[in-house]
TrEMBL record:
EC number annotated for this UniProt entry: 1.1.1.-
Family: Belongs to the short-chain dehydrogenases/reductases (SDR) family.
Superkingdom of the organism of origin: Archaea
Protein name: SDR family NAD(P)-dependent oxidoreductase
Keyword match Oxidoreductase: yes
GO molecular function: oxidoreductase activity
Keywords: Oxidoreductase
SUPFAM superfamilies registered for this protein in UniProt: NAD(P)-binding Rossmann-fold domains
Organism, as annotated: Salinirubrum litoreum
Length: 246
């Protein structure tokens, strides 16, 4: 192994991904935190979090661009942790759901995770060390009233990707899936998928009676990438305030 170790986090410009990046930058296991996001705001993280952050403005749906980023990171440090967090959602009724919209949502939410895994995990496997966390959604388990069937389909696919990778990359690389519920991120507050009344109504259905904070999810992701989760692989971990109970 090289002298440095790295974490790679997608969707890092805000929300859960930003919280994960902050946690990785504060620990002593990752000297480099590669932060990928299509949002140019990802470049602000280095000044905000610290010099260990290496920002990359990258669309995870672009297979070659992801490969270029992974190659740049690996030239300086060995990737030890991968967090596939990038995601997007837009509602369309099935009768209005055109192929280009279907393709875009699957490209970001599912194929993007494949792209990262395709480029980042073979070196991890060869070094016999590393952890991958794929972020899915309750929409993939129960369907989504707000995100559309394409979002539900993509997030369901993440479960299959996780379990398949867990079998291929064992015994030294673990692969797990974290499933957030409704979390206070831009996807909730700025996407137009939820309004205040809808959020309040949803909270009433939850045993914990509130939406989640992104750092509450980031803490679980950090655990799944650490030594405490050394005997976990192929696992699906819900972080949803009890939403999966209904």
């Amino acid at each position: 192994m090289t002298a440095k170790t790295a974490a790679l986090v997608t969707g890092a410009a805000s929300g859960i991904g930003e919280c994960v990046a902050r946690r990785f930058a504060a620990d002593d296991r990752h000297e480099v935190v590669a932060c990928l996001d299509l949002d140019p705001a990802v470049h602000d993280l280095r000044d905000d979090i610290g010099p260990s952050v290496h920002p990359y403005e990258c669309d995870v749906a672009d297979h070659d661009a992801v490969g270029d980023v992974v190659q740049q990171v690996e030239a300086d440090a060995d990737i030890l942790s991968v967090v596939n967090n990038a995601g997007t959602s837009r509602y369309f009724w099935i009768g209005d759901l055109e192929p280009d919209e279907w393709d875009r949502i699957l490209d970001v939410n599912l194929t993007g995770q494949y792209n990262v895994a395709r480029h980042a995990t073979p070196p991890m496997f060869e070094r016999e060390a590393g952890s991958v966390v794929n972020v899915s959604s309750g929409a993939g388990q129960r369907g989504s009233a707000s995100g559309g069937v394409h979002y539900s389909a993509a997030k369901a696919g993440v479960f299959g990707l996780t379990k398949g990778l867990a079998k291929q990359l064992g015994p030294h690389v673990t692969v797990n899936c974290v499933v957030p519920g409704l979390i206070d991120t831009p996807l909730m507050s700025e996407s137009g998928l939820w309004d205040a009344a809808g959020i309040a109504e949803f909270e009433e259905t939850l045993p914990l009676e509130r939406v989640g904070d992104p750092d509450e999810v980031a803490r679980v992701i950090e655990f799944c990438c650490g030594p405490g989760a050394s005997y976990m692989t192929g696992s699906v971990v819900n972080v949803d305030g009890g939403g999966s109970l209904s």
